[in-house]
Amino acid sequence: MTKIAFLGLGSMGAPMAMRLRSAGHDLSVWNRSPAKAAPLQAGGARVATSPADAARDAEAVFTMLADPASLDAVLFGTGGTGGAAGAMRAGSVWIDCSTTGPDAFRDLAARLPAGVTAIDAPVLGSVPQATDGSLQIFVGAAPEVLARWSSLLGALGRPISAGPMGAGAALKLVANSTLGALMTALGEALALADAFQLDTKAVLDVLENSPIGITTRAKRELVESGAYPARFRLALAAKDMRLVNAAAATRHVDLRVARAAHDWLEAAAAAKLGDLDYSAVIAHIRGRAAH
Question: Which DSSP category does 156 fall into?
Fold first, then answer.
């Protein structure tokens, strides 16, 4: 049994924390909206009053937060909350499962107290995978550090060694760049089909057996119904593509497709689709209603 703090109980964080509690670990949780902690409290977790309260005496502190600014606030107290980092002790570990990019992760890790280890472990998957413990976890850590914490990560899914610290965060941006590109490409394909006045069902039948087939099959029901309940919020997808493009610009890599995907996602978010599934960008590209 490991004493764990889990900070951030959004749509992904809550089921991930529940997996750790169900595996028998001693769990303290914190979230800006305390009501989201109620199911975990019912399952035996302790609800902390602040990030620092959650992290006090924890062997491992997990974070699953929206962006680097949120991480900074939770770890170091920006905005008036008790920062978790100040309560962490030498020998403990910070495991970040957020999508932040390698630059922000390394900057935050460098500010941790002496003796605290940092692991970037962003996850690939959505709410069903977080619930059943089948996430892919891109781990940036030295081999001996991964070996020390792999069984704990295994409660959440399959840890994949990406390389040294920061490599997991980098690999997640690589993976997410393809998600944004594929979803907006599907939207543009359907918009072109609409312009040709083609039958949507017939078009989707063809696209299911094309190079974009996996994306088409995964989102077909949503496209046909016009209902896009969030598994991965569009606003977060727009944020991720912003991180992709910022990291590429820093490294002087020209990602024209990634820029276009980001533009579409930002436009859909501006059209008030940000709380829907990121596939709602398809409806926006086609000029159709989404709910």
Answer: T
